[in-house]
Amino acid sequence: MTINNKYDLEERTLEFSKEIIRLCKSLPKNIITIPLIGQLIRSGTAIGANYIEANDSLGKKDFLHRVKIARKEAKETIYWLKLIIEAENKFEEQVNVLLKENIELKNILSTIIKNSGS
């Protein structure tokens, strides 16, 4: 992985986090959505935060550990996005765009893990 790819993925995960926040701000707040929004904000923004931490890691083992956490958060985010569709199906189109990007991010993180020898 080159420096440019590192920067691009950091920027891409930041933009994804911003889109998660925008979605959550637009959702109606009720007894069902409030817990889902909280979970989605935590996992959706943790992807990029953990990836940035991985890039500042002290070694390969720490790097891999943090990338694996980022991937775990990406998997969890898929779950919460699907539940948002169930709770508020009028947001399905917007959520599907985020799901597509999230799956791509998860796949990129999986490739990084695979290519790093774990």
Describe the overall structure.
It is a single chain. α1 (3-26) runs antiparallel to α4, α2 runs antiparallel to α3 and α3 runs antiparallel to α4. The chain has helices at 3-26, 33-55, 60-87, 92-115. The protein is mainly alpha-helical. The protein has a single domain, classed as Up-down Bundle (de novo design (two linked rop proteins)). It contains four helices and no strands. Helix content is 84%, strand content 0%.
**% residues in beta strands:** under 5%
Runs with pLDDT <50, length 5+?
1-5
The CATH C-level class name = Mainly Alpha
Kindly state the mean pLDDT as a whole number? Answer: 93
Overall, the morphology is: elongated
What is the fold's blueprint, element by element?
Elements: H1 3-26, H2 33-55, H3 60-87, H4 92-115
Helix pairs in contact: 1-2, 1-4, 2-3, 3-4
Write a brief caption for the model.
By secondary structure, this protein is mainly alpha-helical. It has four helices and no strands.
